[in-house]
């Protein structure tokens, strides 16, 4: 089975999780989205993205739009809680980018990733506006700062093993 892992990563979180996932898929090919081959030569494509303002980041989104007639799995990192409505909406938006071209979405995985301190600073300056720096937000960012950790990496490995098993079976 030819498996491709493509990651888009600004600050390294998504790359870390995707590299961990790739360890569980011996023989797979892994590329940054900037150098990724076309998806159609593969039996399974796993695309890693980071969440940018509620959406899969632009580079990953553009790559997802090129995927057709292919089994796909999505791996995302974000600052929000992975079980939040916001996270679910981000995942749904990722899946929507694959619709209408005969793709088969085999699964989605999300974990937290530390948020660039410059972005946090920007949010703090905006305090009092749409994104006030509440205690809840502070706690969430402090938790995100610890991720992706080894548990996230292990969960990502288990996730892709499960995805591959779906295809093999
Ligand atoms: C410009 C920008 C916008 C972001 N927007 C969101 C967002 O809407 N929701 C969220 O949960 N996290 C958001 N984040 C946090 C990132 O998704 C998170 O830190 C991610 O793990 C970064 O992945 P990377 O290290 O692979 O680039 C944003 C980060 C940046 C830099």
Structure commentary:
The two termini are 12 Å apart. The chain has 169 residues and is an alpha/beta fold. Strands 1, 2, 3, 4, 5 and 6 form a 6-stranded mixed sheet that branches. The protein folds into 2 domains: 3-113 and 148-168, 3-Layer(aba) Sandwich (Rossmann fold), CATH 3.40.50; 114-147, no CATH class. The chain has helices spanning 13-23, 58-64, 85-96, 117-125, 135-144, 150-168; strands at 3-7, 29-32, 44-52, 55-56, 71-78, 104-112. The structure holds flavin mononucleotide. Flavin mononucleotide binds next to helix 1, strand 3 and strand 5.
Give me a quick take on this structure.
The chain is of the alpha/beta class and 169 residues long.
Topology:
Elements: E1 3-7, H1 13-23, E2 29-32, E3 44-52, E4 55-56, H2 58-64, E5 71-78, H3 85-96, E6 104-112, H4 117-125, H5 135-144, H6 150-168
Parallel strand pairs: 1-2, 1-3, 3-5, 5-6
Antiparallel strand pairs: 3-4
Helix pairs in contact: 1-6
The structure holds flavin mononucleotide (FMN).
Flavin mononucleotide is lined by residues 9-14, 50-54, 77-80, 113-116, 119.
Helix and strand content put the structural class at: alpha/beta
CATH architecture of the largest domain: 3-Layer(aba) Sandwich
Question: Given the structure, what is the number of helices?
Answer: 6
Shape: globular
Provide the residue-averaged pLDDT: 95
Low-confidence stretches: none
Under CATH at level 1, the class of the largest domain stands as Alpha Beta
Report the β-strand fraction as a percent range: 15-25%
Question: How many domains make up the coordinates?
Answer: 2
Write down how many β-strands occur, each being a DSSP E stretch of 2 or more residues. Answer: 6
What is the CATH fold-level name of the largest domain? Rossmann fold
